[in-house]
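Morning!

This is the sequence you dropped in the shared folder:
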Amino acid sequence: MSVPHIRKNGKRKGKQNHVCVDCGRQFIDCYDPPQGYSDAVKRECLKMDVNGMGFRAIERVKGVHHTTVIYWVRQAGLLLPDAYEPEMPPQVGELDELETFVGSKKTKSGAGQR
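The structure's back. Tokens below.
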């Protein structure tokens, strides 16, 4: 078995890139996996969401992008059990007294134009 012949092959993202002359495979010497947020930061962001804080407010406070927080919330939601199915439907229901108006505007465009 022969020793592979390796050459330097430039730099990518500040790290030395190498190439195997025998097979043409490219690689770097030491691979560091991408850094992520700690579990403590994730937990704090999820607690803030549960307590009613908005995603952009969490972003301002913790410095974590709001779409990342949304992704974490979705991941946590997948771990929750399905909703409880009662054996019998409830006998009493509760209804809010919210009225909405559904109709048409008097004017078709701005400032009372015809």
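Headline: The chain has a mean pLDDT of 85.

More detail when I'm at my desk.
O.
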